[in-house]
Amino acid sequence: MAAEAFRGGGTSLRRHILFLGILALLSACALGQSTPRFDAFGGYSYLHSDPGNGLSRANASGWGASLNWNFNRRLGLKADLSGSYCCGGQREHNFLFGPQVSFRGGRTNFFVHGLGGVSHGNPSGVSGNVAAWALGGGLDWKFTPHSRLALRLVQADYLGTQYANATQNTFRLTTGLVFSFGGKK
């Protein structure tokens, strides 16, 4: 088959070289794609809590929202808000902020973040504000390569809080829609 590529004056070989050249040019253009100034997210959140202080484990449903301000293609500052509700009126609202590092492709955005802030809730029947932190990441998938709308396939976080002088080890899964807007960098 390789010998056939060299026959006929090399037209088949020239086509392959032309194809590879165009592919390389398009790949270079993809690397140079601009980054939106903001990524806004809204969607569903599932929370699995293990209080670690003799209380029973709980599963909660709720909402999640975030706004990421992209300084450049890789680094952004994220504000992450969420609310979870379960088990006879128990609720927890988290207000977290911190850096996010993104690895952007043509239709995908893989990201990791480290966030800190405040949690307000009543997990043991007593309302209070405590320190909270989250470590995690996720994957967004654009509907088309140049689309401003994407699906957050998953965001998974370890969420730690300090209610009742004990660390609650919580796992949070979030999914929903991401809308990118603002001037591009």
Report a brief summary of the structure.
The chain is built from two helices and eight strands, in the order H-H-E-E-E-E-E-E-E-E.
Explained architecture:
- There is one protein chain.
- By secondary structure, the chain is mostly beta strands.
- The protein has helices at 2-6, 11-31, and strands spanning 36-50, 58-70, 75-86, 90-104, 108-121, 128-142, 149-161, 168-184.
- An eight-stranded antiparallel barrel has the order 1-2-3-4-5-6-7-8.
- The longest helix has 21 residues, at 11-31.
- Residues 1-9 and 23-32 have low confidence and may be disordered.
Order of helices and strands: HHEEEEEEEE
Beta fraction of the residues? over 45%
Question: Termini distance?
Answer: 46 Å
DSSP helical segment count? 2
Describe the secondary structure blueprint for this structure.
Elements: H1 2-6, H2 11-31, E1 36-50, E2 58-70, E3 75-86, E4 90-104, E5 108-121, E6 128-142, E7 149-161, E8 168-184
Antiparallel strand pairs: 1-2, 1-8, 2-3, 3-4, 4-5, 5-6, 6-7, 7-8
